[in-house]
Amino acid sequence: MPHTPIGHVEQYLRQHLTAGPLHFTLIDPDKSPGAKAAAVAQGAVSLGSHAILLGGSTGISREVMSEAARAIKAAVAVPSIIFPEGPGSLTPDADAVLFMSLLNSRNLDLVIRTHARSASAVRRMELEAIPMGYLVVAPGMRVGEVGDVDAVARDDLAGATGYALAAELLGMRFVYLEAGSGAPAPVPVEMVRAVREVVAVPLIVGGGIRSGPEAKALLDAGANILVTGTITEEEGLGASFHAILEEVRRARVG
Ligand code: 1GP
């Protein structure tokens, strides 16, 4: 019977999660193409980042995505994972794709229909698919708009826990709480704590993380993976990035 086993990238993540939280660096290959993406990845990994997410909220072409994925693969040993906004950017040159349902979108394409249309292509490419529930929390920023999202209010803990638990019960193996790229503040720590209490799957948190103290508060609340993107675009691998990675390192065993 054909089946979808847990792939190499997910195994790598699971194994590293046993020692504590992880950090992912989000790179938009439209803004940082090819060699530039590889340089950012190299710097981020040298500071302790555990994987590279490749994505952006506007259509990235397959060519641009492939070039970045190949350059990153040549530069670093950690996985490069597509964080897709549509099927057009899928490429077998990346190591995996977050095969994610935008749980609180009003647009069924983003909940399941695009997945149905692209699943065969993902299988044909032999691209590892990591099943994930993606939940946008206010303010949601650009992804909230393009995703036609009914954003979870920042104080709606029951709403967030309901979506997250439903994702887990549906078999999704990761849940991502997203405040939106460039959000003025990250997902509230109370929401991270509430979701952490009800789900067993690893909890990814991103959007608006810009400082060590913010990272620490989210980690203390139970976030398993922190994602940052804007900070490197705006400041490079400067003091804030160092401070965030330092908090992740401190929270890890040994
Ligand atoms: C966006 O959660 C990620 O999808 C990262 O957000 O760009 O605000 O770091 P930032």
Summarize the structure in short.
Helices cover 44% and strands 17% of the residues.
E-strand count: 8
Number of helices: 10
Q: Please give the order of strands in the largest beta sheet.
A: 1-2-3-4-5-6-7-8
Strand content: 15-25%
Radius of gyration: 17 Å
CATH superfamily: FMN-linked oxidoreductases
Do you know the CATH architecture? Alpha-Beta Barrel
- Helix and strand sequence: HEHEHEEHEHHEHEHEHH
Percent of residues in helices comes to 40-55%
How many domain modules? 1
Runs in which pLDDT lies below 50 for 5 or more consecutive residues are none
Give a quick account of the main beta sheet: strands, pairing sense, barrel closure. 8 strands, parallel, barrel
**What form results from the Cα inertia axes?**
globular
* Average of pLDDT: 96
Q: How far do the termini sit from each other?
A: 41 Å
Summing up helix and strand content along with how strands pair, one would put the structural category as: alpha/beta
How would you sum up this structure, described in words?
With 254 residues, the chain is of the alpha/beta class. The chain has one domain (8-251): Alpha-Beta Barrel (TIM Barrel). The protein is 44% helix and 17% strand. The chain has ten helices and eight strands. The chain has helices at residues 8-17, 34-46, 62-75, 108-125, 141-146, 157-169, 189-198, 212-220, 230-235, 239-251; strands spanning 22-27, 51-54, 80-82, 96-102, 128-136, 174-178, 203-206, 225-228. It has an eight-stranded parallel barrel, surrounded by eight helices. Strand 1 (22-27), helix 2 and strand 2 form a beta-alpha-beta unit. Helix 2 packs across helix 3 (62-75) and helix 8 packs parallel to helix 10. The chain is globular and about 40 Å long. The mean pLDDT is 96. The structure holds SN-glycerol-1-phosphate.
